[in-house]
Design brief:
The complex is a heterodimer of chains A (209) and B (444). Chain A is an all-alpha fold. Chain A is built from 10 helices and no strands. Chain B has a 17-stranded mixed beta sheet that branches. The N and C termini of chain B lie far apart (94 Å). The relative contact order of chain B is 0.05. Classes of the chains: A mainly alpha (209), B alpha+beta (444).
């Protein structure tokens, strides 16, 4: 019968198809926006206009995401050009050096999650500690910590969602700064009174602001 | 009226103190036109006020107090029925980047203390900003970061103070005071309209969770009573409870925030039979049994007939722990990883023990520690090849042990993390690479 030669032919075809399917799946095209809000409002001084513009966007682009995240990480030193922002992101380990990241393509939740874990210095669970902050496990970590709702790393975000996420990140940054200020006070101070003095409280408030 | 009388008395005393301080300051303040020498002499030779001057001072203070008192009374005075007076808002404090504009067409301007905003004004804040407003006669609003808020209406109509505030994104905390007039305070978000009675509350609206009503930061103990628009159900909030337009009942909101809502949540809320099924699902989940829902569970039991979900008092909750799964790894890799963990279990537990003592979670090695070790060794000895369930089983044993020594959720998480650190040490020590070389037939 001819069944054996056909089977021999089918197996390589199926393997090739599977490889094509898998690589095709990985290289699935993402939404590309006509422009990014950060193109128009790309300076930290334009922050409020940037937020207003972003709020109405149905998808956050890589340019908008990197600008917003770099602002959250370091408001003073954010470069205005996308290429420099991308370089800064690569330097911080948010984006791997071999990965192309078109400015107007929709940002992946995974990339945003890696950046958030870096900004908030989240070490993660055992897996993330062992294998590093990959987009997959950074996303899971943020879901676990309720910073993100249930999402997967390849999804995109709307502008309003991204602003909400930025608020959560900045809120936790405030908590961390307050916690660090308290720890520093505990280490430096020899006082037995746990309550801060008025001048210290004012200093901590300024630090938070 | 008794409390009002007390308030006027308080105001009068405040006015007395302020007035006296002001006048005293005016009496001793150096004349700016005088030269330094004269000023020094004046400071050295100032005479105490005479009895006559003291009498005049007292009269002055009383007049100021009466004026202030009358002004305060006038503020709380109801208008004639049908009469309407437009009120305004004043910026009390600004931190960071904050802007406002008169209406949707006007240009934005930077907010500064004492800026006066009329109804229709819009306010927006940046990432590290916060702005406090006094709105009308009776409300204080603290606008949080990344927020845009509008004030379409601030008006006194007869004996009613009517205020409308709209949050387009972000969060604002409201404190509404009782000043003897009727309060009609409404806050809207893009998905909800809330008519709120109470002293303090916060409303936040964002893309991730929609509208959420939370306790105001300035008043964590506030009791909030609110009714959702087009809903007959009154929701009561206190402390850190949250009510949202998706989950109006704060108890269920807290419950689902902890355990995650089942897929059929919406249907279950409307279907009594589904509620029972939902309750069964909760009962069967062993993790849920240990969780404590720290809000008034009794009210939910009365309403929905849910079973008691709180565990025994000595069972700490494991908040949100998700067993680590490695779905992209095949069976051989699990065999390698679990096999390595088994091989290094003694050293891992030594490091784990010292970590626990250092973190002051234990002072002496408890019996459960040895039990956990034995149970993991039993997993190790059960087979020569391992699967994902063995990997999870090891962590289940660690969690069980951590629950037995911890008194709260933070301690459980800390304990599990200490084990994770101990395990990481073994993986990073170079022994793992050697183990792989020893157990894999790698081409030379």
């Amino acid at each position: 019968m001819h069944s054996e030669p056909i089977a021999r032919l089918l197996i390589p075809v199926m393997i090739v198809s599977l490889i094509l399917l898998l690589t095709g799946g990985c290289a699935m095209e993402r939404t590309v926006a006509p422009d990014s809000v950060a193109e128009t409002y790309g300076s930290p001084d334009d922050e409020l206009d940037f937020l207003d513009g972003l709020e109405r966007r149905r998808v956050v682009t890589n340019h908008d995401a990197l600008f917003g995240l770099l602002m959250a990480a370091d408001q003073a030193g954010v470069p205005e050009v996308y290429e420099e922002q991308l370089a800064a992101a690569r330097e911080r380990g948010w984006v791997s050096s071999d990965r192309d990241l078109p400015a107007n393509e929709s940002a992946r939740v995974g990339m945003i999650a890696v950046a958030v874990c870096d900004i908030l210095e989240i070490k993660g669970g055992v897996t993330m500690r062992l294998f590093g902050p990959s987009p997959r496990y950074a996303t899971r970590e943020l879901v676990f910590r309720r910073i993100l709702p249930r999402r997967t790393e390849n999804q995109s975000m709307t502008g309003l969602e991204f602003i909400d996420l930025l608020s959560r990140v900045q809120e936790r940054q405030d908590f961390r700064r307050a916690e660090q200020a308290r720890e520093a006070r505990r280490e430096n101070g020899s006082r037995t009174d746990a309550r801060p003095r008025i001048d210290e409280a004012a200093g901590a408030t300024e630090e938070l602001g | 009226m008794k409390h009002l009388t007390k308030r006027w008395q308080g105001l009068t005393w405040c006015a007395c103190i302020l007035g006296a301080a002001t006048l005293a300051h005016a009496n001793v303040a150096p004349d700016p036109a005088a030269d330094d020498e004269a000023a020094d002499e004046t400071a050295a030779t100032v005479d105490p006020p005479t009895v006559r001057e003291m009498g005049e001072l007292a009269e002055e203070v009383l007049r100021a107090a009466e004026a202030l008192s009358a002004e305060a009374r006038a503020i709380a005075e109801p208008l004639e029925e049908g009469e309407q007076r437009v009120l305004q808002a004043v910026v009390m404090n600004v931190t960071g980047r904050a802007q406002w504009r008169e209406d949707a067409e006007s240009p934005w301007r930077n907010a500064e203390i004492d800026d006066v905003l009329s109804p229709g004004a819009m306010i927006r804040t940046g990432g590290r900003a916060r702005l406090t407003l006094r709105v009308g006669k009776n409300a204080t609003v603290q606008i949080d970061r990344n927020t845009r808020l509008s004030l379409p209406e601030i008006v006194q109509e007869g004996a009613t103070l009517r205020t409308r505030a709209g949050i387009e994104r972000g969060r604002a905390d409201f404190k509404v005071d009782e000043i003897g007039l009727r309060n009609d305070f409404t806050v809207t978000s893009p998905s909800t309209t809330l008519a709120v009675r109470g002293t303090g509350f916060g409303l936040r609206y964002g893309g991730l969770d929609g509208t959420q009503v939370v306790a105001a930061r300035t008043n964590e103990m506030a009791s909030i009573e609110l009714t959702y628009f087009l809903s007959r159900v009154t929701v009561l909030l206190s402390g850190a409870a949250i009510s949202s337009d998706r989950q109006q009942n704060p108890v269920l909101a807290a419950l689902f925030q902890t355990v995650g809502p089942p897929a059929a949540f919406t249907a279950a809320m409307e279907d009594a039979e589904m509620v029972d099924a939902l309750a069964d699902a909760f009962e069967r989940n062993p993790i849920v049994d240990l969780r404590q829902v720290d809000v008034t569970l009794a009210s939910v039991q009365d309403t929905l007939n849910l079973p008691v979900l709180t565990g025994p008092a000595d069972s700490p909750p494991v908040d949100g722990f998700v067993p680590i799964d490695l779905p992209t790894f095949n069976g051989e890799l699990f065999t390698l990883i679990v096999g390595f963990v088994c091989q290094q279990l003694g050293q891992t537990f030594e490091s784990f023990e010292s970590g626990l003592i250092q973190a002051e979670l234990i002072t002496t090695v408890p019996q459960e520690f040895g039990q956990a070790f034995d149970n993991i060794m039993a997993i190790c000895d059960a087979s020569e090849t391992y699967t994902e369930s063995d990997w999870i089983g090891i962590f289940d044993e660690i969690i069980t042990f951590c629950q037995s020594i911890a008194s709260n959720q933070e301690q459980v998480n800390l304990c599990v993390n200490i084990f994770g650190d101990a395990l990481s040490e073994q993986f990073q020590s170079g022994a793992f690479e050697q183990y792989i070389l020893d157990n894999l037939d790698l081409p030379q």
